[in-house]
Fold this protein.
Amino acid sequence: MVNALCLPPSRGMITALNPDNTMLHILRQEPPPGSAKLRLYPVLLMLPMLVSCATTKLPAISAAMHSAVASRDVSGAVTVVVTKDQVVHLKATGLANIAKNEPMRPDSVFWIASMTKPVTAVAILMLQDEGKLSVADPIAKHIPAFANLKTPSGQPANLTIAQALTHTSGLGEADAAAARNARTLADLIPLFLAAPMQYEPGAKWKYTQSGINVAARIVEIASGMPFDAFVQQRIFDPLGMKSTTFYPAEKLSARLVTAYAKDKATGALQAVPPLSGFGVRGRPPLGNGGLYSTGPDYARFCQMLLAGGALDGKRYLSPAALKLLTTVQTGELPCGFFQSAEFGNRGANYGWGIGTCILRTPHEGVAAMLSPGTFGHGGAWGTQAWIDPVRGAAYILMVQRSNFANSDASDVRRAFQQAAVDALPQ
């Protein structure tokens, strides 16, 4: 028996937080007129649950998100702050669909785009822990066709899995029209190999989608499972990430958030059509950006990484594997999305781990409040997840805005993180 011990966030409703961070809504009877007494009703559950108020414990975050909605930067947001063993904050703000006046929900589903990349990296590192591969392996060891790949200077490329996952491979990108006909990750490999290499391997950092999808294909080869099945069985199911999938159209379409672009002339938010080629069966489960998820789901993934690769008594990554994901593997190469003058020439402030961006040195703006060694990834439509091991917290922002000038540098991200950090114990 569990009693919900918090005041309801809305009339006639008590909200509790399940262990998988999904929200359980429990109807209560209204008290008699003139009575201020709240009637609590016990709820019989199959599993123990952590009861928590749905209202935020960090009200400054709510204020920041309401401001972002009022200024039409986003239609709405779901914000989550976690420590390794606690959900400190979970709040839905604004609308998931403006035309329908549909409120954002804690379990609203977002296209998380490149926040898929750390999931792909974890899958590779799990297989390394099992002895089925090493990130130092030549890709050709697992995909023999790569043995014939030549660099721009005509030398054997000898690309490694680590180079693919750190954006230092120089691998070319697939022809877009041809890629639309791909049905599996295996179908994409010849397209990557047909494209000319962009630079000598290891010479620089350049954000490259093809390498991440090669890594996803290697997961399939090394595990003997489709990539989507591997991450479902080995990561999502045990973490309780029940609303994370490559294919939301099958079961989650009613909770999908509409994406918007801000009109530069009027400031109005205009609905953006769903991306073709994403989210439906018959398309590859893209390791570079194919996942859809919720704030609470991705927070579970972040908690696992924040807790050292284990959660709720289950280990997902060894300490050695986690170190590859959380420490710079790109030497002194300038990295990241702040390298241009417009964003402060901040390439030296960042490095890349296996599948993650790592903050070397904080800088003004979105990184001012983060500690050195903070790691994570953003997504094309503004979603963000950053794990700060020094503060022992992770910050997850879910929005769907398609035309931020730089989705990692948005004022929405800065305001959310600053409000969270200011509210947490120092």
